[in-house]
Input
Amino acid sequence: MGKNKGFLGRLFGYKKNEGGGCCNTEIVANLDCESEGKHCGVNDMANTDIAESADSNGKMIIKVVGTGCSKCNRLYENVEQAVQGLGIECEILKVTEMMEIAATGIMQTPGLIINNKIVSSGKVPGVDELMEIIRK
Output
């Protein structure tokens, strides 16, 4: 019948972008999957830790979403430098588990979420660009 996609491929589907590499994989929701008689709700984040947008102190939470490849690591480093440059206090988290990545709504990694809002996907913004994004 077609190519064997493995568990996650069957659950979410996948589409390989040109260029290869781990961060060129796009997650595609598979709405044929059912859980307890309803759709899986891949983008339903209400019951996950990802849904929390700010800690109890109201401090900004920045999430770097990706599998841990060099692009994802570079984005994390750029975020750290941008935060230091702005002199703000925030929590920077890495989201690396495939199920958590899918739950964020990021369709192409690396991705960046600030206070539960996707602000970048599929690229590695530079430090100056990140400083502008964080200021908003």
About this structure: Helices lie at 6-12, 70-86, 98-104, 127-135.
